[in-house]
Amino acid sequence: MAEHTHSTTLDHPTTLQPLNLLHVDASSRGDDSVTRQLGSRFVETLQQRHGNVEVTRRDTTRGLSLIDPDWVGANFTPVEQRTAEQHAVLAQSDALINELQQADVLVIGSPLYNFGVPAALKAWIDQVARVGVTFRYTENGPQGLLSNKKAYVIVATGGTVIGSEIEFASGYLRHMLGFLGISDVTIIPAERLNTNSDEALETVQRVINESVSALHHTLTQAA
Ligand SMILES: Cc1cc2nc3c(=O)[nH]c(=O)nc-3n(C[C@H](O)[C@H](O)[C@H](O)COP(=O)(O)O)c2cc1C
Fold this sequence. Notes:
Elements: E1 2-8, E2 19-25, H1 34-50, E3 52-59, H2 69-75, H3 84-89, H4 91-102, E4 105-111, H5 119-128, E5 135-138, E6 141-144, E7 150-156, H6 170-179, E8 184-190, H7 193-222
Helix pairs in contact: 1-7
The chain binds flavin mononucleotide (FMN).
């Protein structure tokens, strides 16, 4: 279901720690998809710059289950009391969460569909948001259990302005990632592509370059 690739470049030091990157796609289009292409461009730019990046690619439009009564029942049964069947019901969620836990960097490509996130991406979110695993409730409110991750979210629209009051994807994704503990979120807007494509794609390229430079800088400082 997920593809894994590994790359190193010769002109950059490979003494840097390998970086695990999870690239999540949500477009129902194939190779023509803008968000798939821009996500790949982000990953390639980072690979050229950083040199040692392990990439796992997750296509949420393929093979993800919607959560159903069996899933909810299994999830709310204490781990030690779960039947073998209930463990099996949660196996996909466990695998998706494991990918997310392993990632240092998360790149999500999300088209705007009907003013929100694609159903496929919402299905992924429903699978990875697990009480007691990726978040928990405390006396002081909810606490995300994913830590030390940076997320880059490419949001593409045909005509809707990103950040406007009728755009329910970017704010939702920022909130949801924060809820799970990923508060370092950069939204990369590819907006109004129907009429504004050249300008929008130029802006995206600039933001990708700036984001990758800043990330590389942070990683080399920390090394
Ligand atoms: C089912 C569907 C719903 C869409 N809904 C919206 C929308 O609500 N607002 C908008 O600006 N664009 C909308 N679009 C346009 C896409 O967001 C836009 O074409 C985007 O670039 C698609 O990304 P992709 O090329 O990665 O698939 C919609 C497209 C599709 C296929």
